[in-house]
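Why do we care about 3D structure at all? Because function follows from shape, and shape follows, mostly, from sequence. That is the central idea of this module. The next example makes it concrete: a single protein chain, its amino acid sequence, and then its structure expressed as tokens.
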Amino acid sequence: MKSKTVQLLETLEDRPDPEVAEKAKRRVFSAAHKRCILEKADRCTESGEIGFFLCRQEL
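And the structure:
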């Protein structure tokens, strides 16, 4: 049976590296996707509807 210290060390070794990447990758959208988003946003008429739409699209 392993000691608690050995189990803890093994658990720590299995964890991913906590360091953040130096530079985040930017998302790339095609022109067709951008056009579609703008067309749908233009159809929004109510107050706050565009914000809700963009959140739903994860933008």
